[in-house]
Design a protein that fits this description.
The complex is a heterodimer of chains A (about 500) and B (about 550). Chain A has about 500 residues and is α+β, with helices and mostly antiparallel strands. Chain A has 23 helices and 16 strands. In chain A, helix 5 (about 70-80) packs across helix 6 and helix 5 packs across helix 7 (about 120-125). Classes of the chains: A alpha+beta (about 500), B alpha+beta (about 550).
């Protein structure tokens, strides 16, 4: 018998019965250890455990809102009453408020219009709605009171849980423990042998004489979680390893940028729709970011005005933005390495980083996302070279990349990388790539050829992570981080 | 991107069935969005507004499948119509072009296709009519040959789709297009509206609506096409594009004069740009070798008039192509005609050893250290709000030192975070059901404004459990800094309990703060167990290699 098992069993035996707190207090054993011993002893029928149900109830944010401003069905009733009868429901049919109001027989729906029933009239006058009253009771009740509420109003509680108004967790708490006949017998015929192996037992070799006690290997043990890397980090490292393995050097650049580096330097016209407030985050502090290189500004201005036919304005280029793509990093390095590193061409660079778009956030859309961009600067570089690089990159991700022509303002020729999805029987776009336009390389002061691409990492990442909701990714729920599947990269 | 839809039956007339369309359209660089209900929808990239037109698409597919010598687009004569541009449009919408079409056939789908084309063209290439708009009028309903394009605060006419006459202000308030375009800045500040009129009546209020009197129907044979806008270049291009479309539909095109105060232009210009394309350059860009005889054929497949000389092609760009600026654009077209699927990938010559950035390497080392200490990694958004970043942390802030957004669509995000710790405390609030202890860390960007934008990297950790206390946090901090000659000193920070907070410094510079999180902060984050935490500066201001 385990040392703790014996101690605890004999304590219970001495006191006829005991609670967990008694045991903890008197024997000074850790609560988690006490629980596992109690479970083990109970499984051996050495003790009898009487349990009591206890509940933890948490009102969700939705619930809190309901508590303050009423349930949606109540709000609906109020509204119908307010507009005096018929309410056109054609737009909100299937809405939660409508379905509950119907379920409660508060409204009748005819020809898409809702009318209060007698019951509905009554409720709209009194506003005594049982679920809300229950929610209020829960909110005001001390924790100890939960058991009674649950016992008396189980069905109603279940409805609130289903509607995600409250979350409820049930524990069975040990109330009293008493020893059984078998327990008494076990205690008296206490096995001989070493329990916890000690330094003393090892050095004195007393185990040779005393032998070991047998443990119950099926007894439950405490759960341990490893500390883990965030799956997104693992994935980004994998992408980085691919580039490094292909001979690329990592670079990075500013996240907060001037519109110049995000757009103008890449020959995106100043009235292009992606530069709209709807798509791009502009900053109110700082409002502008200066570009010191006047000669560069002038070259870009000249290329824009010649190419697009509109007057190019420096104040538009100076607006500060959150970079809309990591291609802004590429733009910086085109200039830096265009002519500086004579003799060492081709120069192969990549970057991995976050880019931003002005989205209203939901389970599919985030305002922040990762991209990887790359360039090769050199002489005699071809579209065929670019295709080779793209194919190699995706091969490492298990994707067979193919190409079709497409248009991106900063490249010419441009191409769209895609793959054929066997399951969906459809072609799926991967990324855009191409040879940087002369207008851009000229403005950057280089006569080299530059191959370039920008890859959104959300799609390949989703393939690996098997996720339904992107929001999960940045929530960092430790339960999710601990229990997530291993990435198979 | 703009999606346009065409009836499949219209293509059948040209001899293109669904299979042919599926094969050729992607080779032209356009994506088929869908083919259903006898309708083809294509995603047209913004460089090819000419393909928003059914005639344009049919022309491109026709050339590609059966390359032949291209027609030279010419006008049939002068119409004698002159548009006088008045002074009031000079500052708001100064440019116009105009031409006349005769013997047009707008029966069956043709009118619909034409209207769809002009609408799409004005909304994409014309930036929602702001930069350019197109008006189509029945020529037979126009009186006289002298038209006036000008602007005025008030005029009356019967707008398209209405029975009674309205004045400009009424149209802005009642006409659906008037309401749609009422947010034009130039209308707001000084309400004068551009218009087109003949000797008797207003033909259009621009860019809002045409008049009912000159409405174009399926039986209209003669048209006046009027293009106006803020870009001289685009107004000219669009006249060319539309004229080519009419000529390709077997109609006749006659020019009009547009007379400004000091000069006059005749439209459509139908001018051809000539470009010399070096064959070696084309092959060198694409990475292929082409037979001599083939190069010109590839250019013709894409609609160019092309003539081969010893080592170059002389290419004439059709007036409807607005995207061809120079040699590289023609080379792309040659690559398309050659076929991207036929280009064999070739490795880049020249060996290079790849490497990670030093910052990445440092971050990796720190991550491994934290994982080894039993902290699970979190990754959070850089965008947050003042409440989470400051108020919940009991921290005061100077608005000037925070990078803030001008145009967020949601109140959840309004600034870039200045600290990683609030993100981690928010994370803990999602995990209240999980087993304690809960230990998280993050290495990530933080932002500040100190004369210039500062982008830094911080390491933060949190440890939440019933017995979390200062000495645990200190143990971790000491372990992270071991071997650096660090110093720990008393520190005050409103996020932490007074007397249980310390700073850590290296070489006399404070690089971190740690301790027990104040219970009022815990409450703000809806946390019910003690939390100890630290935030350490790894880079105060990253100096990028640019």
């Amino acid at each position: 018998m385990h040392e703790y098992d014996k101690k605890i069993l004999s304590f219970i035996s001495r006191n006829k019965s005991a609670t967990i707190q008694d045991i903890e207090k008197n024997l000074g054993i850790e609560p988690s250890a006490v629980s596992s011993v109690i479970e083990r002893l109970a499984s051996q029928d050495a003790i009898e455990v009487s349990k009591q149900e206890e509940y933890a109830i948490k009102i969700t944010d939705e619930g809190k809102e309901y508590l303050n401003s009423g349930f949606p069905e109540e709000v609906l009733i109020k509204e119908i009453k307010h507009i005096g009868g018929n309410r056109d429901l054609s737009l909100i049919i299937g809405n939660i408020a409508v379905s509950w109001a119907k379920k409660n027989r508060w409204i009748e729906i005819k020809d898409g219009k809702a009318r209060l029933t007698k019951e509905g009239e009554k409720i709209s006058n009194s506003f005594e709605y049982k679920p809300r009253e229950l929610l209020k009771t829960i909110a005001e009740s001390p924790k100890q009171g939960y058991a009674t509420i649950v016992k008396e109003r189980r069905d109603e509680i279940d409805v609130l849980v289903k509607r995600n108004i409250i979350e409820i967790k049930q524990h069975n708490v040990v109330k009293e423990i008493s020893i059984t006949k078998k327990g008494i017998a076990l205690l008296s015929s206490e096995e001989k042998g070493i329990g916890q192996l000690t330094r003393d037992a090892i050095t004195s070799e007393k185990w040779r004489k005393e032998g070991f006690r047998q443990y119950n290997i099926s007894a439950e043990t405490e759960k341990i979680y490893p500390a883990r890397m965030h799956p997104l980090h693992e994935f980004l490292n994998y992408i980085r390893d691919i580039w490094v393995g292909m001979g690329f050097t990592e670079v990075s650049g500013p996240i907060v940028e001037s519109a110049f580096w995000s757009f103008d330097a890449l020959f995106s016209p100043q009235d292009h729709p992606t530069r709209d407030m709807q798509d791009t985050f502009f900053l109110s502090n700082p409002r502008t970011i200066d570009i010191d290189d006047v000669a560069l500004l002038n070259r870009v201005k000249e290329k824009h005005e010649k190419g697009w036919g509109d007057t190019w304005k420096e104040e538009i280029a100076k607006q500060s933005v959150l970079r809309t793509h990591t291609t802004s990093v590429t733009a910086h390095y085109m200039k830096k390495f265009g002519n500086a590193a004579k003799g060492d061409y081709p120069i192969k660079l990549f970057s991995i980083g976050r880019a931003f778009r002005n989205e209203s956030i939901d389970y599919k859309h985030l305002a922040e996302f990762y991209q990887t961009d790359g360039i090769v600067i050199g002489d005699n570089l071809t579209l065929a070279n670019l295709m080779y690089i793209m194919k190699s990159f995706y091969k490492n991700l298990g994707i067979k990349a193919e190409f079709m022509p497409s248009y991106f303002p900063f490249v010419e020729p441009g191409l769209q990388v895609y793959y054929y999805d066997e399951k969906k029987k459809d072609t799926i776009e991967l990324n855009g790539a191409g040879i940087i336009r002369k207008e851009i390389t000229d403005a950057m002061g280089t006569n080299k050829t530059i191959l370039a691409w920008g890859i959104g990492l959300e799609r390949p990442m989703f393939n690996f992570m098997k996720m339904d909701s992107i929001v999960e990714l940045y929530k960092n729920d430790i339960g999710w981080l601990r229990n997530r599947e291993e990435l198979k990269l | 991107m703009a999606v346009v839809s065409f009836a499949l039956r219209d293509f059948i007339e040209y001899g293109f069935d669904e299979m042919k369309l599926r094969e050729i359209i992607p080779k032209l660089g356009m994506e088929i969005e869908s083919i259903k209900d006898k309708e083809l929808s294509i995603d047209i990239t913004p460089n090819r507004p000419d393909l928003l037109d059914f005639v344009g698409i049919a022309r491109a597919i026709g050339c590609f499948s059966k390359p032949k010598e291209q027609p030279v687009y010419r006008i049939n004569g002068e119409s004698g119509i002159e548009v006088k541009v008045g002074s009031a449009v000079k500052d708001i919408r100064p440019y116009a072009s105009c031409f006349v079409v005769k013997k047009a056939n707008l029966k069956s789908d043709r009118l619909k296709n034409l209207i769809n084309f002009t609408e799409k063209l004005a909304s994409t290439y014309g930036r929602k009519r702001k930069k350019m708009a197109i008006g189509l009028h029945n020529l037979d309903a126009i009186s006289g040959k002298a038209l006036i394009y000008d602007a005025a605060a008030e005029k009356r006419f019967v707008p398209l789709g209405f029975k009674k006459s309205m004045d400009f202000n009424e149209i802005m308030k009642k006409h659906d297009k008037g309401i749609e375009y009422s947010d034009f800045a130039e209308f707001k500040k000084n309400p004068v509206y551009p218009y087109l009129e003949d000797s008797e009546k207003v033909l259009a209020m621009i860019p809002i609506t045409n008049s009912e009197a000159t409405k174009v129907t399926e039986s209209t044979k003669s048209l006046l096409v009027f293009v106006d806008g803020t870009s001289e270049k685009i107004v000219k291009q669009v006249a060319d594009m539309l004229a080519c479309s009419f000529i390709d539909s077997n109609a006749e095109v006659y020019s009009c004069r547009v007379k400004y105060a000091k000069q006059a232009h005749t439209f459509p210009e139908l001018s051809y740009q000539e470009i010399k394309v070096r064959c070696s350059r084309a092959e060198g860009t694409i990475g292929i070798e082409m037979e001599n005889s083939q190069t010109a054929l590839y250019a013709r497949k894409m609609g160019y008039n092309a003539e081969r000389f010893a080592d170059y092609l002389n290419v004439k760009v059709q007036p409807y192509r607005v995207d061809v600026l120079n040699e590289q654009d023609v080379i792309e077209d040659i690559a398309m005609a050659y076929g991207y699927d036929r280009i064999a990938p070739v490795p880049v010559v020249g060996h290079s050893a790849g490497s990670e950035e030093d910052t990445t390497k440092r971050n990796e080392r720190m991550s491994m250290l934290m994982l080894g200490l039993g902290f699970t990694e979190a990754m959070n958004m850089y965008l947050t709000n003042e409440k989470n970043n400051f108020d919940n942390m009991n921290r005061k802030y100077d608005k000037k030192s925070v990078l803030s957004l001008m145009n967020s669509k949601t109140e959840f995000i309004s600034i870039l975070r200045t600290s990683v710790l609030p993100s981690l405390l928010s994370n803990l609030s999602y995990s209240f059901k999980e087993k304690m202890p809960q230990r998280l860390f993050e290495i990530g960007f933080v932002f500040a404004m100190k004369e210039k934008v500062k982008e830094g990297i911080n390491l933060a950790f949190v440890s939440e459990h019933a017995k979390a206390n200062f000495s645990e946090a200190k143990s971790y901090v000491e372990s992270i800094f071991s071997g650096t000659g660090f110093k720990i000193s008393e520190h005050k920070d409103p996020s932490f309990i007074d007397g249980r907070c310390a700073s850590v410094s290296v070489d006399g510079k404070t690089v971190g703060v740690f301790g027990e999180i104040h219970p009022s902060v815990l409450k703000n984050f809806k946390l019910e167990e003690p939390v100890v935490a630290a935030e350490i500066i790894l880079d105060e201001n990253i100096v990028y290699g640019v």
